[in-house]
Fold this protein.
Amino acid sequence: MPLRPATVLVTIAASWARNGSIFLALGIIAAQCVVIGLLVYDRSRGRRSQARVVSQAASEGAAEQLSQAVLASIAAQIAIIDRNGRIIRVNAAWRELAEGAKVVEEVEAFLNWNYLDECRRAEERGCVEAGEIRRGLEAVLEERVSSFRHEYHWLSPDVRWFELRVDTLTRGDGGAILTHLDISDRRLAELRLEETRSQVAHLGRVATVGELAAAVSHELKQPLTSIRANAQAGALLLGRAPADVEQVLNILDDIASDSQRAAEIIEHMRMLLRKAETVSAVDLNEVARQAIRLLQRDATVRHTQLELMAEPELPKVPGDPVQLQQVVLNLLLNALDAASTAIEHRAVMVRTTVADGMVELTVSDSGPGLAADVLEHLFEPFYSTKPHGLGLGLVIVRSIVERHHGRIQAKNRASGGAIFRVDLPAIGVPAPTRLPGSPDAMRMA
Amino acid sequence: MPSPETTRSLGPGSDDWVAIVDDDPLIRRSLSRAFGAFDIQVESFSSAESFLEHASSSDPCCIVLDIQLGGLSGFDLQDVLESRGTVPPPIVFISAHTDMLEHGSRIRRAHGFLHKPFDIDALVALVRPLLRSVPLPVEG
């Protein structure tokens, strides 16, 4: 691949030039050129000594040939630097780059240039990246660390990523080996994965919203049915002589409360669909109650008991009520699916408690429980045990819980069925065992 | 088990009445009123079980039956009535669910199917011919 290393060198030069360190860039290219020279010189010197001391040269030459061959076979651009930062050897890829770049032809692959000095000069011109690289290289040369990695990218003409690696050279004289690696393929793959993940999250949201919309529109038909029947009955009763005014007044009362009920359902739907995240003090008991109300009919149709055991003194949790609602709804839908496969006892239990400064919400079902391989992949995208499942629900659930500085776990109950447990930091409760690595959780409390 | 709600006292042995089976109390109340306004006697039940328990002495001339109910579903009740060996009372299914394709044969066996929210005139039009003594239509 002769093109790729050339691109990399140009890129190194160009990206640093972009940062106002054209001299460093030129310097590196020049240094790369110098390295070639040294390499050629090394080779010819090797040949000369071979002529003079035949027996010693035989083994030295073989070792030299081997190391040359190894260096040459490596696609990455490699330069060897002595303990002072001077470039003493480069490989073929580095040389090719230097030649291909044709920036400074008279300097042989930067050989004998001092890489550290070049970095310092670039730093003086304000190149922050060069400073980072210098410090990393110094740390390796002074054997404070054994290696240093620096990743950077170049956006034009196409997006490329590179990694500069500095590793200790294990030999008496010290020094370091400097490797430039084009890691674009890996980074692109990572980026694509990230993109897929966010698409997955979006899809999941849409899927959940779709389910909610179906549930809500179903709910809405109940008050609409009775409003219509009441209105028609009222009209008939008023047409009678004498009109049953009292009955009509009752009817109007019912119509008013039914329309109120419909408005609440719509308001709830609007809340669920609202995009902006809001942080408020959320009562998980209320969230659970609303979720149960929304899915009660689903549960009834499936002959499944839906129960809530709410801790009366439950502290509130800081968070987005809509997102937390989604968490509970998703867990409940899964639990209902699981419980409805049971033949005898079909039950789903939501329970809230408080422990160690965390509010705990569990959803347990009387279903068959989770198989070991299912448990393992439970929170992975596109993993689903349902015939038409997208495998997204729990991915979203976990991401929401984690955004709220909480955690989610799933396991099987000793008495059968699965239990999902969500722990969220509580407001105003002393927290002896706060989640590790979540300083925000402390702040929010 | 909730007891049946009677909106109109029934004469002894009268079978000229309509049963409403729906788990939503507001639906039961509004439908009972609407039938009342048409002078059709109704009795409403919150579940299929409650209907079977209380309506065993005399069959209604028609059952207005919600499909989704707690306990036995509307379809379950249809099965029970059809397996009794006597001619089952005609059923008018009512449901908020739009997709009834998979239940086509059940719907066809019923006297009618109405999608919530429905027009009360449509329901009365389905029920009225089943009444043994057809009450006169109420004119303004």
Chain A touches chain B at residues 218, 221-230, 232-233, 236-237, 239-240, 247, 251, 254, 257-258, 261, 297, 300-301, 303 (CB under 8 Å). Chain A has three domains: 3-182, 195-273, 280-444. The longest helix of chain A spans residues 184-239. Residues 280-444 of chain A form a domain with the Heat Shock Protein 90 fold (CATH 3.30.565.10).
